[in-house]
Design goal:
Elements: H1 6-23, E1 27-31, H2 35-49, E2 57-61, H3 68-78, E3 87-89, E4 94-98, H4 100-105, H5 107-110, E5 114-117, H6 123-132, E6 137-140, H7 141-147, E7 154-159, H8 164-175, E8 181-185, H9 191-198, E9 206-210, H10 213-216, E10 226-229, H11 237-240, H12 243-250, E11 263-265, H13 271-275, H14 279-284, E12 289-290, H15 293-299, H16 303-316, H17 321-329, H18 333-337, E13 348-351, E14 356-359, H19 366-383, E15 387-388, E16 392-393, E17 398-403, H20 412-420, E18 423-428, H21 432-441, E19 446-448, H22 452-461, E20 468-471, H23 484-500
Parallel strand pairs: 1-2, 1-5, 2-4, 5-6, 7-9, 7-10, 8-9, 10-11, 11-12, 14-20, 17-18, 17-20, 18-19
Antiparallel strand pairs: 3-4, 13-14, 15-16
Helix pairs in contact: 1-7, 2-9, 7-9, 8-16, 19-20, 22-23
């Protein structure tokens, strides 16, 4: 069967051409040198080597450059030699490192014509740059990556509140059996960095892109073959202020999908999503497919299985011979998922006996932690009547480690799950005391610690055989760690060290 994908190829090439025009021959500044910013710089440097896109000069802008160590770190990531001056030079291009203040106070000197904007930067900062450089064009890191992929590549976008990374990982796993496939975006590896590493390819590849609200807000100029918005709940309200703005940011993915037939929206029962949308939106997208949540609950046992159903449904939306193969192979469900390993730090078991220890550092909001609590509570209930090692019963107490930099959301739903199971709560981090007030209001016992390390040691020392220790913070990690991965690594190392003694 022939699959005619020319219309989407033409649409993608048109957008790619526009992005390249924004960069080629221009003085380009990269705002923010986190994962996305470094990835964008890597892509621009590699694209020059392959003569695909060539800026006139490159300015790397981040306040961290006031620290020499950060400058050396970025130079190392880009394969550049660091020196004592702000200006660097390769054989192809002049590169400068600036702080945000230097970029704004010396706008006439640097005359930046285009900015590549990293996601999550303070809006005031981006607005300030736009004011100083009135004629400058703004490009997102996702748009930059999209500009340099093969137009025949397959692009799938995934967003929502919880489960994005898991679904992205699963979808890539299904596609990888038939086509070279990569999971990129908010899942960890910047799309631009992976494009830079993999280089040009004549063969079509598949890109499964996890998209956060920070990446989507304000819209993007790129073309997706298919997309899914997972069910939504409160998250990132410190930035978005309310549910309506948060859902609106996520819905910026909708126009990126080439055809409404390839778009999957949350089930109507996800009132958080649909109540935040206007009736006009509901009417316009009535024809879209929906995630069959009610059906999935009737057919499968676990949320993990439900995610596999979603992954199969999403892959079938992609036009191509590999999609037909996936549809036929869905009947061999068990074989298809055999050997699949879940994501690190998402309900990851790091110890099974004498106590079960679960690392869910990726749970950075209340809704995600509620899911982890339900999962572990159900496991404890199933095991409570089983006999182990000489007719001893599992005690089944849950020790929950909770805390960090809380987001603007209520913890009330979480305490309902805490009360439903014999749970001891160990609070830590910058917002531990604030979370304690919420726990006290709802009559849940707790202990507050200064750090996650102290809370972990206290939890491990309080366990009995058959107990569960669950790190599921419901908070961001930035009060004490670089990201949730570092927090998870510290927790896993501490647990293994304790049980190695």
């Amino acid at each position: 069967m022939r699959h005619d994908r020319e219309p989407i190829h033409d649409a993608r090439q048109a957008l790619q051409s526009l992005t390249k025009q924004t960069v080629n021959g221009r003085r380009v500044g990269i705002l923010g040198l986190g994962v996305s910013g470094v990835g964008a710089a890597q892509l621009l440097l590699s694209s020059m080597a392959e003569a695909q896109m060539r800026p006139a000069s490159l300015m790397l802008i981040d306040d961290a450059f006031s620290e020499p160590s950060k400058r050396s770190e970025v130079c190392q990531a880009l394969g550049l030699a660091s020196n004592s001056e702000n200006a660097l030079r390769t054989k192809d291009i002049s590169i400068q490192t600036l702080t945000f203040s230097e970029a704004t106070t010396s706008a006439s000197e640097f005359a930046i014509e285009s900015f590549v904007v990293s996601p999550g930067l303070p809006r005031r900062l981006v607005e300030s740059m736009s004011t100083c450089y009135e004629q400058a064009k703004l490009v997102k890191e996702l748009e930059l990556a999209h500009a340099l992929i093969n137009p025949h590549d397959v692009c799938i976008g995934i967003t929502g509140t919880n489960g994005k990374s898991t679904l992205t990982h699963m979808t890539r796993h299904l596609l990888a059996e038939s086509i070279e496939a990569y999971a990129v975006g908010n899942i960890g590896d910047a799309w631009s960095a992976v494009v830079a590493q993999q280089g040009k390819s004549r063969k079509a590849r598949a890109w499964v892109v996890e998209m956060s609200s920070y990446q989507l807000e304000g819209g993007c100029d790129l073309q997706l073959d298919a997309g899914m918005i997972l069910p939504m709940a409160d998250d990132h309200l410190t930035r978005h202020q309310n549910a309506k703005n948060y859902v609106a940011a996520k819905c910026q993915m909708v126009p990126l999908v080439y055809s409404l037939e390839k778009l999957i929206l949350p089930e109507v029962s996800n009132t958080y999503f649909w109540s935040a949308r206007s009736s006009t939106f509901a009417r316009t997208y009535r024809s879209c497919a929906f995630v069959p949540e009610q059906k999935a609950r009737a057919q499968v046992i676990t949320q993990k299985d439900a995610n596999w159903k979603r992954a199969f449904q999403l892959v079938r939306k992609v036009q191509g011979p590999w999609a037909e193969a996936q549809s036929e192979a869905e009947i061999h469900f068990d074989k298809r998922i055999e050997g699949f390993r879940g994501l690190p730090f998402r309900c990851e078991e790091i110890l099974s006996w004498p106590v079960r220890v679960v690392n869910d550092s990726k749970a950075t909001n209340v809704h995600s932690t509620c899911f982890a609590l339900m999962t572990e509570s159900n496991r404890i209930r199933r095991q409570s009547t089983e006999k182990i090692s000489g007719a001893r019963e599992v005690h089944g107490r849950l020790h929950l480690l909770l805390g960090g930099a809380a987001k603007k959301e209520s913890f009330a739903p979480l305490w309902q799950h805490v009360k439903a199971q014999d749970t001891w709560v160990y609070l830590f981090g910058a917002d531990g005391p604030r979370i304690a007030e919420s726990a006290r209001t709802h009559g849940c016992p707790y202990v507050v610690f200064d750090s996650m390390e102290e809370a972990t040691m206290a939890a491990l020392e309080s366990t009995r055989h058959g107990d569960v220790v669950l790190l599921s913070p419901a908070c961001a990690s930035f009060d004490a760690y670089e990201n949730f991965s570092e927090r998870g690594q510290v927790f896993s190392s501490l647990v293994r060290m304790c049980y190695a003694k």
